[in-house]
Amino acid sequence: MDAVKIAARRYLPAAAFRMLKSAVVSRKLRSAYRYDLGRYKEFSSSIVATENQHNLRALITERYHSIEKGLSLPRPRPGFGAGVIHTLLGHVDEYLIRFGADDFLETVGSVLSAYLDFNRSVGVADSEVPEFGRIISVLARVGWIPNSAGVRDVSRTDIDSAISGVGLDFFLTRHSVRQYAPDPVAADSVEFAARAALKSPAVCNRQFSRVYSYLEPKSIQRILKVQGGANGFGDQLTGLAIITTNLRSYWNEGQRNQAWVDGGLFAMSFILGLHAQGIGTVALNWSKSPELDQEMRRTTGISQEEVIVMLVGFGRLRSDYKVASSPRQALASVLTVNPPVSFH
């Protein structure tokens, strides 16, 4: 293929070469977009939302989190959210019929219980609470854990204590590392980073990103062979993670790219969770063709409904090592304060 490209560039007029290149690129792009479109249509809730447990959980999570957000406002309106409560209870009824009561619905019950507590605290009679009878019926079936969902009190003092000593240096000392010590990374360290990643923002609290962590050298090298971007240093990695997000968490055209947004936030938190323990990382790109995407799935067993967002290589730091300087842009080129806004 490279020889054909070289010959075409050499012998074709420039305009003809551009037309040929445009046709080839367009064909590849159409193929890739069809691949993404087909998977999104098949697994997202855009067409059918209630037959798969994950899809239905995503819908329910989006609804109950709307109630949580309402409860967290400076001045929640008594009896707010009638439409949201109605839709939420309909989804819960569907879930109970298809899958029965479980720990997930217990979380929903805890939100509904907090909603009742709020309305009672502001003097709303039970008879005036939207869908009161249905809420009581659902609570009897799914249960709840007091003060486990809805809203919680946070102290500014606790936040100040947690972030004391954490400055810009924490972020500025994170580098993409390609030189590692041979010492293994313990599973506990990976769990620490995964817990950090769990606190990443996710659209409407739909926390459906995952970490597949590999600590066995043979598995790491096999996966890196498919990824193809760790030449010259991959043999030094003692850990490797694949970050994914599930397409069943989303619906409709507006959320078609949300898996990469949620997965990117999750991945960055995972990286910083490793950095907080003095573990070096290197972000490994997964912007690949449909063919390579399928090869990675065959290699790892990652399901078709998950988007592979990126890979993260990691390992223990040497006492001294070199990193790419990677000069950053000037702050003025990335930060605009109070840009003009149109009010027309």
UniProtKB/TrEMBL annotation:
Key words of the record: Flavoprotein, FMN, Oxidoreductase
Q: Which Gene3D superfamilies match?
A: NADH Oxidase (3.40.109.10)
Q: What Pfam families does the annotation carry?
A: Nitroreductase
Superkingdom of this entry's organism?
Answer: Bacteria
Q: Domain Nitroreductase, which positions?
A: 173-225, 246-316
What the record says about family reads: Belongs to the nitroreductase family.
PANTHER family (alphabetical): NAD(P)H NITROREDUCTASE YDGI-RELATED (PTHR43673), NITROREDUCTASE (PTHR43673:SF2)
Q: What is this protein called?
A: Nitroreductase
Q: Which organism is it from?
A: Rhodococcus opacus
